[in-house]
Amino acid sequence: MAQRLKGKTVVVTGASSGIGKSVALEFARTQPDDLKLIITARRIDTLKEVAKEINGFAKGVKVHPVKLDVSKPEEIQSFVGQLPDEFKEVDVLVNNAGLVKGVAQAPNIASEDIDVMFSTNVTGLINMTQAILPIYKSRPDGGRGDIINIGSIAGREPYQGGSIYCATKAAVRSFTDALRKELIATRIRVIEVDPGQVETEFSVVRFYGDKEKAKKVYEGVEPLTGDDIAEVVVFAAGRRENVVLADTLVYPNHQA
Ligand code: NDP
User: For the chain, what is the domain count?
Assistant: First the structure.
């Protein structure tokens, strides 16, 4: 696998914490001598810490931290337009940035929470994909690269109080499936990884910073870690080109 990822340029969105940070670290662990890693999120100071951590154990990895809010199309445009030359030839995009706001029955969900979930989880992911695809398609070999979308069990099994978040992840699923079909004649792989419960800042964001409530989400289940998902993502990227892990659901044991 290490050989297949050698020299690759990887973009990870939402790499300042949780699954995205784990994905960035796992790519660096797997390919410590020759990897270009573009890590993005809104919290640039935290991203710089992640870059420092990576360079502490993987001196050969070139890390480029970029402040990027995926819900802002103009930021995505300038992100791609301003990539330094040595990072321009992106091979792998991991669309991980995402969030959930609140737990509420559908009629009571604030419209700003609906907007933020859709503009981040859905439109942000689509805009990132549209921005990177021309790089893949312009390759002389007829188009090559990986799009790896982080969906969720919530996109397959909607739950009460999570209608909007679940709808965003169902939208990710439909978009990913359709894109895979559209690109079937190319060497571009479209991959979805759907985590079950993973312990990250996610629940804290969901309850607007209330850590006590966040803890209760995991009662009765030993949640996955970000590293568990990162291993699957990097495994998918490291398969030989003809192998597409199109659709992988990763549960913690005992999650109903
Ligand atoms: P975290 O809250 O730990 O991480 C979310 C990441 O997304 C952060 O790095 C955050 O960075 C970034 N982010 C949020 N909004 C934006 C934005 N508008 N633009 C750019 N970056 C943004 O949660 P997870 O690691 O758990 O979540 C990662 C993905 O995994 C999400 O798509 C989530 O839906 C999915 N998922 C999580 C599960 C879980 O149980 N934890 C289960 C199933 C799926 P910053 O704040 O710096 O911008």
Answer: 1
Q: How many CB atoms lie within 10 A of CB 82?
A: 9
Q: What sections of the chain are H helices per DSSP? A: 2-5, 18-30, 44-57, 73-81, 111-117, 125-137, 163-182, 202-206, 211-216, 226-237
Residue 225 sits in a domain of what CATH number? 3.40.50.720
pLDDT for 110-139, tens place per residue?
999 999 999 999 999 999 999 999 999 999
- The closest residue, in CA terms, to atom 34 on ligand 1 is 98
CB 232 within 8 A of CB 250: yes
Assembly ipTM: 0.99
Q: Is residue 177 part of a domain?
A: yes
Nearest Cα residue to atom 31 of ligand 1: 98
Q: Is residue 256 part of a domain?
A: no
Ligand 1 proximal residues by C-beta, below 6 Å: 13-20, 41-43, 46, 68-71, 96-99, 120, 124, 150, 152, 195, 197-198, 200-202, 205, 226
Distances in whole angstroms, Cα of residue 228 to Cα of each of 14, 118, 196, 200: 17, 26, 11, 12
> Any idea of the CA torsion for 114, 20, 192, 143, to the nearest 10 degrees?
110
State pLDDT tens for residues 8-54.
999 999 999 999 999 999 999 999 899 999 999 999 999 999 999 99
In the block, residue with structure tokens 């398609």: 137
What spacing in Å lies between the alpha carbon of 98 and ligand 1's midpoint?
Answer: 4
Distance 139 CA to ligand 1 centre (A): 31
Find the 16 Cα to ligand 1 centroid distance in Å.
Answer: 9
